[in-house]
Specification:
The chain has 356 residues and is α/β, with parallel strands linked by helices. The protein contains twelve helices and 17 strands. The strands form four sheets. Strands 3, 4, 5, 8, 9, 16 and 17 form a seven-stranded mixed beta sheet that branches. It has a six-stranded parallel beta sheet with strand order 12-11-10-13-14-15, with helices on one face. The two termini are 20 Å apart.
Length: 356
C-alpha cells in the first residue's frame, strides 16, 4: 500500500515529500495510522549522513504514536482503534540469547536488530522507512500499548526513545529511594532522566554547563544543580553519588563525574559523541571500585514497562509540536539546542498537505 512521508534524499538536501510502499499486513502484523512522531537527534545525524551508513532516501522517525487501523489474522495483542506506539526497533532475530532474554536491542543475529528506519526490510527488500510518514506496518511483537490520556499523546511519543533510553539504565542499576543520582546534561534525554529518576524516589542532581538551566532543572524534579564548568563546585561533589546517568552526546572529560561517584558507584553513558571521549583515569576507577558503563534503549518488554511506569506517575516529555513541513528548521534549532526539550511532529499536517 502506498503511503506518504518526508525523506532525506542526500546528506545535504532538505527533507522533501516522498511516496513509497508499505507492505500489506501479514498474519502477525499491525497497521497503524501515525498521529505523532518525535524528533530524535539520531534522526538528524542519520538524515545528514553524520554517522555514515545512511541509506537514501531516508525516512527518519522512531518515536511513533498512532492508531491501529487493521490487524493480521493471528494478532492477539492489539485491536482496531487502539492507541499504540512503535520505538527504535521493528524486528530482531528472535533466537539469540539477547532476544530470548527480552533484550532485543542487543540482538546478535545477523545484522542485529532491525531499526525502524535505515534497517534491512526483510519483507519488501531495500531498507526500512520510519515515522515521518502517515502510516506504518509492524509485527505485533514490536508494538507497544499506549494508555496515557488522549490529550497527552504527542508528549508520549518521545518516551519511545528518550524515555526508554533513560529508564533502562536507571532500572537495570536499581536506582531507587534514598539514592543520590546525577544526570549530566539537560536536553531531550536528560530531562527525561530527571523525571524518571525522581519518580523512582532518588534525589537527583543535574550537571549542566549552563547556569541558566537551574530553575528548569528544579522544576523537572531535581533537588540540586551543579555547573560542571565550575571546577570548585565539581570538586565538592567528590564521592557523593551512587549513580550518574550521562546523557551528553559531545566529547568531554569524564573524570570529574567519575570522581563524583561513591565507592562502587556507576556512571552510564547513553550519548554517542561524534569524537571519542578522552580516556578516563584508571586510578579513579580502581581506587574506588567505580564502574563506567553504557546502555542502549531497552527491550520491548522493558519499553512497555516504562510506558506503564510513566502513565502511573503522570510522566510525559516536555515538547514543542511542529508541522511536518518545518522539520529542517527544527533540525537547525536542535543543533543550537533551541528546544525544550523535544520536537514532535503532528502528522495531521502531512495528511492536510496530501489532501490539498
Amino acid at each position: 500500500m502506498q503511503t506518504h512521508g518526508y525523506a532525506a534524499h542526500s546528506a545535504d538536501t532538505p527533507l522533501a515529500p516522498f511516496s513509497f510502499d508499505r507492505r500489506e499486513p501479514g498474519p502477525t502484523d499491525v497497521a497503524i495510522d501515525i498521529l505523532f512522531c518525535g524528533v530524535c537527534h539520531s534522526d538528524l545525524h542519520t538524515a545528514r549522513g553524520e554517522w555514515g551508513g545512511t541509506l537514501y532516501p531516508c525516512v527518519p522517525g522512531h518515536e511513533i504514536v498512532g492508531r491501529v487501523t487493521a490487524v493480521g489474522s493471528d494478532v492477539s495483542l492489539f485491536s482496531v482503534g487502539q492507541t499504540v506506539g512503535v520505538g527504535c526497533m521493528v524486528d530482531s532475530c528472535g533466537h539469540c540469547p539477547s532476544c530470548q532474554d527480552g533484550e532485543e536491542q542487543y540482538c546478535t543475529g545477523e545484522g542485529g536488530f532491525i531499526g525502524t528506519y535505515n534497517g534491512h526490510d526483510k519483507h519488501l527488500g531495500g531498507h526500512t522507512f520510519g515515522g515521518y510518514s502517515a502510516h506504518i506496518v509492524v509485527d505485533q511483537g514490536f508494538v507497544l500499548r499506549v494508555d496515557h490520556d488522549e490529550k497527552d499523546l504527542a508528549a508520549v511519543a518521545p518516551l519511545l526513545c528518550a524515555g526508554i533510553t533513560t529508564y533502562s539504565p536507571l532500572r537495570h542499576w536499581k536506582v531507587g529511594p534514598g539514592q543520590q543520582v546525577g544526570v549530566v546534561g539537560l536536553g531531550g534525554l536528560g530531562h527525561m532522566g530527571v523525571k524518571i529518576a525522581a519518580a523512582m524516589g532518588a534525589e537527583v542532581t543535574v550537571f549542566t554547563t549552563s547556569p541558566d538551566k537551574r530553575e528548569a532543572a528544579l522544576a523537572l524534579g531535581a533537588k540540586d544543580v551543579v555547573v560542571s564548568r565550575d571546577a570548585e563546585a565539581m570538586a565538592a561533589q567528590a564521592g557523593r553519588f551512587d549513580f550518574i546517568l550521562n546523557t551528553v552526546a559531545a566529547s568531554h572529560n569524564l573524570d570529574p563525574f567519575l570522581n563524583a561517584l561513591k565507592r562502587d558507584g556507576t556512571m552510564v553513558l547513553v550519548g554517542v559523541p561524534e569524537e571519542a571521549h578522552p580516556s578516563p583515569s584508571v586510578g579513579g576507577l580502581i581506587f574506588r571500585r567505580r564502574a563506567l558503563a553504557g546502555s542502549l534503549i531497552g527491550g520491548i518488554a522493558e519499553t512497555q514497562e516504562m510506558l506503564d511506569f510513566c502513565r502511573d506517575h503522570g510522566i510525559t516529555a516536555d515538547i514543542e509540536t511542529i508541522p511536518m513541513q518545518a522539520i529542517d528548521k527544527a533540525y537547525d534549532r536542535m543543533v543550537r539546542s533551541d528546544v525544550k526539550y523535544r520536537f514532535v511532529i503532528d502528522m495531521q499536517s502531512l495528511r492536510d498537505e496530501v489532501a490539498a
